[in-house]
């Protein structure tokens, strides 16, 4: 008998019919003797509908109240799934984030989980109940409802699995696993049976939308066995995300090509080339809770330098406003921004022991005439920022250059 | 400076535009120096949409989970109204029923308020905030979300007004006050400036949908000054619901004609005419939380009697099933039921001192050939059950017979 946490995304619970299918799948696991905790997202489209409503009543909705509105999406799903489970003869009980007491900080719309009281859930499981928990939400010390940000339901699932010391956390989605790249762009893309946490982290953070990055971090940190599966297929093992590197000699150097369209590039021109300038520029940006991705500082000349970084497109205007505010203080000549950027990356733990990955990547892009605007590297990935219009082309040629279509 | 509790129903908050209008109205009251607590219902149509969803996933949705789903309707509205208030420069904070801690019993979908912790709301008011509370919902001792049943938002408003010792509880609705009867049936129906709690109680319980009956009971019990107003008119004093009877000599004997289409009649035939039979019949019905309205027991003959009562039509099938279960035990000959019943009543505190109301009512109906099936009287009302098809006719002729079109 195992304790399994299953997380179903918005598409998997997108209609009453699909919710009933999820109930049947959960029943199958329970019939096998497993204890099951189910984490669900809002029905697909619901969160967007709610956000649209808020924009109709307020130009810039208050984050606390935004969370009050948006968190209802998951609350509807937990009630519906619980009654669907009861309807087929199971015992089930729903919990909102506040009811579990998933304690978070007070950073509304982007809250982080501080603690989970898993005792009531454990009691329900021991009584033979299926426990259904609202993903994406929690409660702060003041009792205000918080949300974890988009994709936060994955994080809820993994955090619960960690708190309950679950045997496995299964993330059900509309794809049947993690692919070498997006099959919509490269039809030859191949499903991976396993991928390491590190690689998954790079793939997720780079825009492979299968799992939310924080959930992968969490899973790695707390050694939660994580599996990505399709909620629309009866069979299939999905992709297991492993702590250990595959020791197979035949393991390919590169596991996949990741990409992210949601990149905006900002360049601060002509700042004084002196210690502390990076902090002066990025400190106010971080204070506004804006995630900065790639950061490049050019070698200076004439005592000044140029400083570039990327943020999500949704954060661009806010970031530019912040920098305009500190421009005089830091002595910058100008702020430039570009919304039409995109990032493409090759990812693989194998590159640690295989030199030449970077040069092959750069040569491949050069042969297609694709200009590289920024480069950033880590032990297991190389990322470049390019003009968005070349994104699909870049992904296709890199997938082929690294032989990913064949295992 | 007064403390005002304002309750806005589903139609009044039925669209983002209307929510913004409510925000403006609240702002006007605050600008006059008043402290304002706003209680809101779900946006019109939302509760029905949610209930429809539950019926698609489960044949007979679990009441606890039904409350989890349905309570999201009001939660969306409090968030939207709070951000709309902030958008026009006010400070505002939303509370779900659980966040206020509106403690109720655990009778899901029909819960009763046990206690309200008003201290946090009072603190917010003193800080100059508008407090926005979700109507219709509370939380039980176990932390489960409960709902008060349809129309429960009125009850929330009045209960909050009582707990806060508010100066007035204003119920905003889509009508501009309480009328002598439904103007859709009698165009000459007249708005009343005042009505007593007792009369309002009879009018509400008899199907004048302006206010939910429990809210009127509450208001009477805790001496909350209650006013019914239109949320669609800028001016107008609405109808004030008073503790005191109007001492005006010219006061009409009858205040209004109330009616209720939602009546189903059940007759238990040939039960032994002995003590305790009423309890044996109605005990199991009450245990199932079914409200029984009119009750008639005929004079017995041959040692048996017939026992009739009315319930809401939605409860009819359940009631018949319950009675079929106890039929043998109580020794009844048969159970008959009739869905096409309707109740019409004349209401007025004036009838206490004016005899002849009953005879005028019965004569008026007889002149139109309308058969009376059941009669029930109280100090301030006379109700009759008639065939539903005569309902409009009965209301029209009674309104005229009691001279209600002229003040």
From TrEMBL, chains A, B:
<dbReference type="InterPro" id="IPR045865">
    <property type="entry name" value="ACT-like_dom_sf"/>
</dbReference>
<dbReference type="InterPro" id="IPR001048">
    <property type="entry name" value="Asp/Glu/Uridylate_kinase"/>
</dbReference>
<dbReference type="GO" id="GO:0005524">
    <property type="term" value="F:ATP binding"/>
</dbReference>
<dbReference type="Pfam" id="PF01842">
    <property type="entry name" value="ACT"/>
</dbReference>
<comment type="similarity">
    <text>Belongs to the aspartokinase family.</text>
</comment>
<protein>
    <recommendedName>
        <fullName>Aspartokinase</fullName>
        <ecNumber>2.7.2.4</ecNumber>
    </recommendedName>
</protein>
<keyword id="KW-0547">Nucleotide-binding</keyword>
<dbReference type="InterPro" id="IPR002912">
    <property type="entry name" value="ACT_dom"/>
</dbReference>
<dbReference type="GO" id="GO:0004072">
    <property type="term" value="F:aspartate kinase activity"/>
</dbReference>
<dbReference type="GO" id="GO:0009088">
    <property type="term" value="P:threonine biosynthetic process"/>
</dbReference>
<feature type="binding site">
    <location>
        <begin position="173"/>
        <end position="174"/>
    </location>
    <ligand>
        <name>ATP</name>
    </ligand>
</feature>
<feature type="binding site">
    <location>
        <begin position="209"/>
        <end position="210"/>
    </location>
    <ligand>
        <name>ATP</name>
    </ligand>
</feature>
<dbReference type="GO" id="GO:0009089">
    <property type="term" value="P:lysine biosynthetic process via diaminopimelate"/>
</dbReference>
<keyword id="KW-0418">Kinase</keyword>
<feature type="binding site">
    <location>
        <position position="74"/>
    </location>
    <ligand>
        <name>substrate</name>
    </ligand>
</feature>
<feature type="binding site">
    <location>
        <position position="179"/>
    </location>
    <ligand>
        <name>ATP</name>
    </ligand>
</feature>
<dbReference type="GO" id="GO:0005829">
    <property type="term" value="C:cytosol"/>
</dbReference>
<dbReference type="InterPro" id="IPR041740">
    <property type="entry name" value="AKii-LysC-BS"/>
</dbReference>
<dbReference type="InterPro" id="IPR018042">
    <property type="entry name" value="Aspartate_kinase_CS"/>
</dbReference>
<dbReference type="InterPro" id="IPR054352">
    <property type="entry name" value="ACT_Aspartokinase"/>
</dbReference>
<keyword id="KW-0028">Amino-acid biosynthesis</keyword>
<dbReference type="InterPro" id="IPR036393">
    <property type="entry name" value="AceGlu_kinase-like_sf"/>
</dbReference>
<feature type="binding site">
    <location>
        <position position="47"/>
    </location>
    <ligand>
        <name>substrate</name>
    </ligand>
</feature>
<keyword id="KW-0067">ATP-binding</keyword>
<dbReference type="GO" id="GO:0009090">
    <property type="term" value="P:homoserine biosynthetic process"/>
</dbReference>
<dbReference type="Pfam" id="PF00696">
    <property type="entry name" value="AA_kinase"/>
</dbReference>
<dbReference type="InterPro" id="IPR005260">
    <property type="entry name" value="Asp_kin_monofn"/>
</dbReference>
<dbReference type="InterPro" id="IPR001341">
    <property type="entry name" value="Asp_kinase"/>
</dbReference>
<feature type="binding site">
    <location>
        <begin position="7"/>
        <end position="10"/>
    </location>
    <ligand>
        <name>ATP</name>
    </ligand>
</feature>
<feature type="domain" description="ACT">
    <location>
        <begin position="346"/>
        <end position="407"/>
    </location>
</feature>
<feature type="binding site">
    <location>
        <position position="184"/>
    </location>
    <ligand>
        <name>ATP</name>
    </ligand>
</feature>
<feature type="domain" description="ACT">
    <location>
        <begin position="266"/>
        <end position="340"/>
    </location>
</feature>
<keyword id="KW-0808">Transferase</keyword>
<comment type="pathway">
    <text>Amino-acid biosynthesis; L-lysine biosynthesis via DAP pathway; (S)-tetrahydrodipicolinate from L-aspartate: step 1/4.</text>
</comment>
<keyword id="KW-0457">Lysine biosynthesis</keyword>
<dbReference type="Pfam" id="PF22468">
    <property type="entry name" value="ACT_9"/>
</dbReference>
<comment type="pathway">
    <text>Amino-acid biosynthesis; L-threonine biosynthesis; L-threonine from L-aspartate: step 1/5.</text>
</comment>
């Amino acid at each position: 008998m195992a304790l399994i946490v299953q997380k179903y995304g918005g598409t998997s619970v997108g209609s009453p019919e699909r919710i009933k299918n999820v109930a049947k799948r959960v029943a199958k696991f329970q019939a096998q003797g497993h204890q099951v905790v189910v984490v669900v997202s809002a029905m697909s489209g619901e969160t967007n509908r709610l956000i649209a409503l808020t924009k109709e009543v307020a130009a810039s909705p208050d984050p606390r109240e935004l969370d009050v509105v948006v968190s209802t999406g998951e609350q509807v799903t937990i009630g519906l799934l619980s009654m669907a489970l009861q309807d087929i003869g199971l015992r089930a009980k729903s919990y909102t984030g506040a009811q579990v007491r998933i304690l978070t900080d007070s950073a509304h719309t982007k809250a982080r989980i501080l603690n989970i009281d898993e005792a009531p859930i454990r009691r329900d499981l021991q009584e033979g109940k299926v426990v259904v928990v609202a993903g994406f939400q929690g409660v702060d010390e003041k009792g205000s409802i918080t949300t974890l940000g988009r994709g936060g339901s994955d994080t809820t699932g993994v955090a619960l699995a960690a708190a309950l010391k679950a045997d496995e956390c299964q993330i059900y989605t509309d794809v049947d696993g993690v692919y070498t790249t997006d099959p919509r762009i490269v039809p030859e893309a191949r499903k991976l049976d396993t991928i390491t946490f590190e690689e998954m982290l790079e793939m997720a953070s780079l825009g492979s939308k299968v799992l939310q990055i924080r959930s992968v971090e969490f899973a790695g940190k707390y050694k939660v066995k994580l599996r990505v599966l399709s909620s629309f297929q009866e069979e299939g093992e999905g992709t297991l995300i492993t702590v250990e590197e595959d020791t197979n000699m035949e393991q390919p150097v590169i596991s996949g090509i990741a990409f992210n369209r949601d990149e905006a590039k900002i360049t601060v021109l002509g700042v004084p080339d002196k210690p502390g300038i990076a902090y002066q520029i990025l400190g106010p940006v971080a204070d506004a809770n804006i995630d900065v991705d790639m950061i490049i500082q050019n070698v200076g000349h004439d005592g000044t330098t140029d400083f570039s970084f990327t943020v999500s497109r949704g954060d661009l205007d806010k970031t530019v406003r912040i920098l305009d505010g500190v421009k005089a203080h830091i002595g910058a000549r100008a702020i430039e921004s570009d919304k039409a950027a995109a990032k493409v990356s090759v990812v693989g733990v194998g590159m640690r022991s295989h030199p030449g990955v970077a040069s092959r990547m750069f040569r491949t892009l050069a042969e297609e005439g694709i200009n590289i605007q920024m480069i950033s590297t880590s032990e297991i990935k190389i990322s470049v920022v390019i003009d968005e219009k070349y994104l699909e082309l870049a992904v296709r040629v890199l997938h082929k250059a690294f032989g990913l279509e064949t295992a």
